[in-house]
Amino acid sequence: MTTHKDKLYTSVKNKIREVSQTLNLSQSVKTILRQPKNEIIVNFPVKMDNGDLKLFKGYRIQHNNVLGPFKGGLRFHPCVNLDEVKALAALMTIKCSLVDLPLGGGKGGIKFDPTKLSQAELERVTRRFVSALGSNISPVHDIPAPDVGTNAQIMVWMMDTYMNLAGPNEKHLARGIVTGKTIECGGTLGREQATGRGVVMCIEEWAKVNNVDISSLTYSVQGFGNVGSWAADALNILGAKLTAVNDHTGTIIDSSGIDVNRLRAYVKENGGVKGFDKLEERSRESFFSHQCDIMVPAALENQITEEEAEVMNMKLIAEGANGPTTPEAEKILLQKGVEFIPDVLANAGGVTVSYFEWVQNRTRDSWTEEEVNTKLRRKLQKAYKEVAELQKEQNVDMRTACYMKSIKNLENVYLQRGIFP
Ligand code: NAD
Q1: Which pLDDT value is given to residue 295?
Q2: Burial level of 27, CB count in 10 A (0-12/13-18/19+)?
Q3: Cβ 272 under 6 angstroms from ligand 1
Q4: How far apart are the C-alpha atoms of 179 and 276, rounded to whole Å?
Q5: Candidates 96, 143, 222, 248: which one to mutate for ligand 1, based on the most atoms within 8 Å of Cβ?
């Protein structure tokens, strides 16, 4: 029986299988894509502030590297589990191939609640995880990045640990071991905003195709962390109106418009949206049934199930999160005429700018934020246009078109390289 926990893994696996059949993919490539290349699990002890030793379980899944080094985020969350990380790693393979990055798919995580630890404990957990992973990660083999529960500070601790363990000749190239670092420690301008900004660049493409004026639209956001808050910031700049937000602390709704900048400052200070502007506490259901033009899910996977889909009615869902919509819910929403910009395209801005950071680290260069954003827009516009053309030509939904383009690209590379031995 499929449980909520392994639901994402099942749906990603099924989607890859379904599209592989439609494409009549070669049997060997089908077999390769069925499972990740490497599944690394480490159990490591960390000393807590009170002197006790606690055991942590960490994962790094390396799904596919036919296009380049494994690349993908690192999640610190109590629900992290093997199947979830496997699914997220497979999504990274699809995403990198879709937007033509010379990178493969990976993902990692540690199962714990980072909000329950002191900063000193969090630092020790992070550093001990890097040492436990050892040579399984490297700037030319597997390059982690931030995801749920991790941030630039955690990336810098990872980098510092790795650099301290590297020999003198590798030390400075070792800076590229992670992306999403602070600017001072080798990060790139625009990385923090990249995923949310990328979501909105895709929405802009959708608006062009549909002849819609974004400044006349209302939108809601689920999750007001990195992705959700920066997507809101970019939509705010374009003049759209934020009318509902849901996160792990609660739901706020204000049809006259929620102030994005003040909400960001409030969430930073209070850890969630609950209590903002003394707005009345609303139910989770009222967030999904709230009438608006666009929804940006930017929290966790499996948030939109059949139950939520039944009450939802917007023009567009732009998936900032990975796997926020179950296949059953997507079916209901497509039947209602709701359009999707699927996760593998909508949130690909994050890995794209991570790639830009990695390139700058390797070439010892630094680009302006304008350069980063111009290159990001070019990448996403090209991918969006190609996917939209394929969708029309094949008469399929947009997620299927994304997977078709991505998997076909992977197959071409495998067929040219041949299968070893
Ligand atoms: P984050 O930790 O900064 O924020 C997560 C948000 O989700 C928080 O606002 C939290 O309140 C909310 N949340 C958690 N549990 C919830 C629940 N049960 N109900 C409602 N809200 C809940 O994480 P993030 O980096 O913004 O990542 C969000 C999503 O975007 C994830 O699916 C992640 O994989 C995906 N993503 C992130 C990046 C990136 O660059 N950070 C890139 C691509 C995709």
Answers
A1: 98
A2: exposed
A3: yes
A4: 32
A5: 248
pLDDT digits (tens, 9 = 90+) for 246-270: 999 999 999 999 999 999 999 999 9
> Any catalytic annotation for residue 107?
yes
Per domain, the residue ranges of the chain are 36-174, 193-346
Hey, do 36-174 and 193-346 end up sharing a CATH topology, with the first three levels equal? yes
> Which residue carries 């199947």 as its tokens?
83
CB atoms inside a 10 Å sphere around CB 196: 27
On average, the pLDDT of the chain sits at: 96
Please give the structure tokens belonging to residue 187: 């990060």
- Give the C-alpha separation, 192 to 11, whole Å: 29
How confident is the model over 320-345, as pLDDT tens digits? Answer: 999 999 999 999 999 999 999 999 99
> Measured in angstroms, how far is the CA atom of residue 267 from the centroid of ligand 1?
13
Give residue 301 CA to ligand 1 midpoint distance, Å.
Answer: 9
Q: Kindly tell me the burial class for residue 132, based on how many C-beta atoms sit within 10 Å of its own C-beta (0-12, 13-18, 19 or more).
A: middle
**Terminal Cα distance for the chain, rounded:** 37
pLDDT at 6: 65
Pocket test residue of 201, 227, 319 for ligand 1, highest count of atoms within 8 A of CB: 227
- Taking CA atoms only, the protein residue closest to ligand 1 atom 35 is 321
pTM for this prediction: 0.97
The answer to whether 325 and 319 are in contact (CB under 8 A) is yes
Whether 279 has a pLDDT exceeding 50, the answer reads yes
Please pick, among 107, 111, 181, 405, the residue that the annotation labels catalytic: 107
Q: What is the DSSP letter of 275?
A: T
Q: How confident is the model over 166-187, as a mean pLDDT?
A: 94
Residue whose structure tokens are 């009438």: 291
pLDDT of residue 2: 45
The predicted structure's pLDDT at residue 4: 56
Does domain 193-346 match CATH 2.30.40.10? no
Q: By CB neighbour count within 10 A (0-12 exposed, 13-18 middle, 19+ buried), where does 37 fall?
A: middle
- pLDDT score of 365 more than 70: yes
pLDDT value at residue 165: 94
Q: What is the pLDDT of residues 205-216, one digit of tens each?
A: 999 999 999 999
Q: Nearest 5°: CA angle at 342, between 225 and 408? A: 130
**CATH number attached to the domain at 36-174:** 3.40.50.10860
